[in-house]
Fold this sequence. Notes:
The complex is a heterodimer.
Chain A: H1 2-18, H2 21-37, H3 50-70, H4 75-82, H5 85-90, H6 96-124, H7 131-159, H8 162-179, H9 191-197, H10 201-213, H11 221-246
Helix pairs in contact in A: 1-6, 2-3, 2-6, 3-6, 3-7, 3-10, 4-7, 6-7, 7-8, 7-10, 7-11, 10-11
Chain B: E1 3-17, E2 20-34, E3 39-43, H1 50-57, E4 65-70, E5 73-74, H2 79-84, E6 86-89, H3 101-111, H4 116-129, H5 145-157, E7 163-167, H6 175-190, E8 194-199, H7 202-208, E9 211-216, E10 219-224, H8 226-233, E11 236-242, H9 245-253, E12 260-264, E13 267-272, H10 275-288, E14 293-300, H11 303-311
Parallel strand pairs in B: 3-8, 3-9, 6-7, 7-8
Antiparallel strand pairs in B: 1-2, 1-4, 4-5, 9-10, 11-13, 11-14, 12-13
Helix pairs in contact in B: 3-4, 3-5, 8-11
The structure holds adenosine-5'-triphosphate and magnesium ion.
Amino acid sequence: MLRHTALFLGYELRFLLRNPIWPVFGILQPVMYLIFFAPLLGSTTPSGSMADVLAMFTPGSMMMIALFGSLFAGFGLINETRNGVLERLAVSPAWPPAIILGRVAKDMLVLVLQAILVMGVAMLMGLRIGVIAFVVMLGLMAMTGLFAASLSYGLALALRDENGMSQIVQFFAMPLTLIAGLFLPVSLGPEWLQTAAKFNPLYYGVEAGRALFRDDLSNSTIPTAFGLLGALAVITLIWSMRSLRKMAG
Amino acid sequence: MIIEAHDLRKTFIAKRGRGKTEEVEAVRGIDLAVEAGEIFAALGPNGAGKTTTVRMLATFTAPTSGTAKVAGFDVVKEAAKVRENIGYVSQAGGVDDNSPGLDSLMLAARLSGMSRKQAQVRSEELLEAFSLTEIANRPAKTLSGGQKRRFALAIGLVTRPPLVFLDEPTTGLDPQNRANLWDEVRTLRAQGTSVLLTTHYLDEADALCDRLIIIDHGKIVAEGTPTDLKKEVAGDVVTLRLKGLEEARELLAAQDYIKEVRAEDDLLRAYLDDGEHGLPQLLRALEERNLTLDSISLDRATLDDVFLRHTGRSLRDAA
Ligand SMILES: Nc1ncnc2c1ncn2[C@@H]1O[C@H](COP(=O)(O)OP(=O)(O)OP(=O)(O)O)[C@@H](O)[C@H]1O
Ligand SMILES: [Mg+2]
């Protein structure tokens, strides 16, 4: 089982190593936000210092790569439902979940590497975080990637249609971004917005990230985020396995 | 028996848009018995249900009803065991466009349990056999249709399965590559591998397979060796074009050396066992009635004549 997942992961990584440029493009967006948008946020933190602004803003910009990178991971799979690749794998001796898990593992790995780069840029700009916070943040990113990529593969297999998929992803990405308080904490907003945010898994990811960056390691949002994203990932993975089986009609 | 199927059926629920659905009876009761070591073909027009049948046998699609055993295992209850014993090359091919064919080959080999070393040896063997060594490391999207098909085949054979399913293996190949593929399929048989292939080419089924079924509208309409099936129709067929079609049909049907007469649009087909000797008699009979011919030809009966006899349509214009 694990062996098959590792084999699929290896296959995906070989492809990635031949085309390493795309994930680098993926971090340009959050880096631009850090450089051009974060300086505008001085008035939103008590001290107004760049270090505080970055501690508030960096987790949000990192969730952005998870959202805009991993949520689109499934697009490639749609073509594979038609060109016979999935059909062949489905009747091969491969453990079926490994077909999806191998890809998800690759997306998680890419996301963690991107996260390291974004945090590196933020640190160059003045962010200060501890080693534990750094490592736990990477774990949180991996967890977010696990959920977002699984969701994306699940959507791809259920819809099997590029147009439908891009509409749905766009449709969800926007409110998820806004209601998670990706750019500014929702605690700055009205009550109803804070209530709405509680239904958004991404909100917990961002809040957990902010707690970590404040060095508030015992904050309850951290285990909540891990638990919630993990549970959702399992549900979406089961869903994609079912869609994979239903592909045959 | 490497394949045994009883009354296999598949009904798809197809979406028609606006929430409406319709039922498509793709396969409507197929019985199959394929011996180990045979090349077995399923011949039929587009939409006959060939792919659906193969997909059910290869454990991709679950049958709506009926049972099938492949390599001794039930395709539904023991799907994992079936998968260990088959190679499957789908109609679409299933070669990943983004990666080199060699990567796909290695992955397929290792998924079946081979070590890296074993997988390398086996891959090299297959690259050699299918003349793919030079293009092994090019992304598959840069390959021609025929080259990709050869990769698809190599991937399907990587585990040395006792049974391979080839769904329209020669579609899109030029005559040269088609002939090569036929040779490769024959080599497989020589090594003791059983092959189930589908095709809509008459000559392919005729030249390549030991036994075949002819499928139409999800049902088997004929089954046997190519020779037996053709013999059942007759050895030869005389095709005539003339005026007074109906009169000529009655006249020829009454001749005892003619087994069967069929009218089709503006021509008549007369089936007879010994065309060389029957033709002069046939011409005399027409002349006695003053029926003038526009054209006439004598051919060996083909599988198309078998298809025509069982379905009333010619495979050339069936769709
Ligand atoms: N997933 C599906 N959903 C709905 N209908 C389907 C599905 N797959 C096949 N069909 C229908 O079932 C019938 C048989 O299709 P099938 O693909 O088995 O034919 P085929 O003999 O392989 O044809 P071809 O020579 O064109 O490949 C067709 O009418 C087709 O439209
Ligand atoms: Mg087909």
